[in-house]
Amino acid sequence: MKFAFVIFKYFPYGGVQRDMLRYAYACARRGHQVTLYAGEWEGDRPEAGIEVEVLPPSGWLNHRQRRDFIHQVTARLQQNLPDLVLGFNRMPGLDAWFAADPCYEERARSQRKWFYRLGGRYRFFAHCEREVMHADGHCRILLLSPREKAIYQKWYDTPDSRFVQLPPSITWQAFDGLTTAEARRALRAEFGFGDDELLLLLVGSAFKRKGLDRAIAGLAALPAALRDKTRLLAVGQDDPKDMLELVHKLGVADRVVITRGRNDVPRLMKGADVLVHPARVELAGNVLIEALAAGLPVLASAECGYAMHIAQAGAGFITATPFNQQDFNRCLEELLAAPTRETWALAAQAYAGKIRRDAPEGFEADLLETLAHAKAARP
Length: 379
Fold this sequence. Notes:
This protein is α/β, with parallel strands linked by helices. The chain is 45% helix and 17% strand.
């Protein structure tokens, strides 16, 4: 089979970008032909067996660049007809959409003033979402978060039959063979942390959206004795300028390290003590599932779609919504001071093991093959 994956921008360490590569590799291992179409590509290209076509868009404004990219992709797909077109952004012409973004119409109505909807940006992105979601369409929606389904149906009446609920999925093999003791030693040696220091880890691009400022404020609010033996390591692709200003303002510059995205996040998780993820917006949050696989207790916000898994695993705390900084601070102190972190770690790994068994290796390719066969059989 021939699969076409389409994304506006690829950059290393982005969550949806990693999801795209995982699906691409799963299909390539089956012998399928996979082509990735992107308007921008940063970082290394995939290994042999997966083709990448970069179609740089023209235009000054973001939405005009996106429109030009869609026109280019449409022309390429008409020349090289695939069995299935899977989009990782909303756009016309998709057979399936990997729903990694919250409902655009809902946010435009609830978080913006009325005049926002008069602009060209709104009209373009609202049109792209309608093309994917409208009730009479054929595009299948691959859901990460079940709560988003009702929001989409509120605006578009999309029938239930078009939705496919995906299980949480990560690259499980990346955690195999890693030992906590070795990871702790290596991590502390690399960054100069003390052997007896507690380490908070935050992973994610777009630091403001992932709540790094909230994590920094929580660290600063710890009792002095606990704060002085706690470090925060933030890993992600973003300009850290605002966050560096904040750590100096709150007097914790010596307790915080901010570094660029890396390929060894599983090892970092194995060597840390707590994952903090107080995100403002997080449709799912694979990083939470990765933390469970590493046996890492978690403190996350209820805005994360996968927060329910932390609660079900009994592997940490979920702050209430709307977010309250004092509540986060209290949970952070309790999590760091608790003698039960080892119990939470075992619970996390047991729960992650169940997820892994329920979504066996290769399910991504199974799903796309099924969707391609269904498309071919459609009148």
